[in-house]
Write a structure and sequence with these properties.
Structural class: alpha+beta
Largest sheet: 4 strands, antiparallel
Shape: elongated
Distance between the termini: 97 Å
Radius of gyration: 29 Å
Length: about 200
Amino acid sequence: MAGLRSIFLRKVMRDRRGAALVEFALVAPVFILALIGLFDLSYNIYTASLLEGAIQKAARDSTIEGADLSEAQIDARVTEVVHNIVPSGTVEFERKAYTNFADVARPEDFTDSNGDGVCNDGEPFEDVNGNGMWDEDRGKDGMGGARDAVLYVVTVTYDRQFPLHKFIGVPSEVSSVARTVLRNQPFRMQNTEVTVGQC
């Protein structure tokens, strides 16, 4: 009886039928997940590059004289390009104007009388954007005027096209942000008036 059992075990150990099926069953989930990840990554990169191209064109269109009349049309073109690829995506626009490129995303200057590094206690500051309060970003909302450097930011948020988030815990939404800074054409003298306020 023991001899029969050992012969049977040897035959089973040497039998290779069905091994490929078992190996495939072990490898397939990992392979499929990697493939979905590759598709997801490729789709997101393509969307981001398309957004980057659309925002560059829109920003160039925004810098010409009289573009402020067609701001909504420029944004609508970017939205249309994005929706050709991501029909359900939400598109948000932000424009900030600065006197020059060096001012982009810089705080308004202030005199730090008490040396605490914070604009407070009635310290004077340059109200560059004219809103009556000290800001960490001196930009004025909108497209600005002649010769202004304009930061144009477009954010697109959309649901993942492939169900990767169900398997590896990534967010179910993708956010892609494109930025560009261009200078408006010199169609008139630049407005560089700055008022002084108090914190």
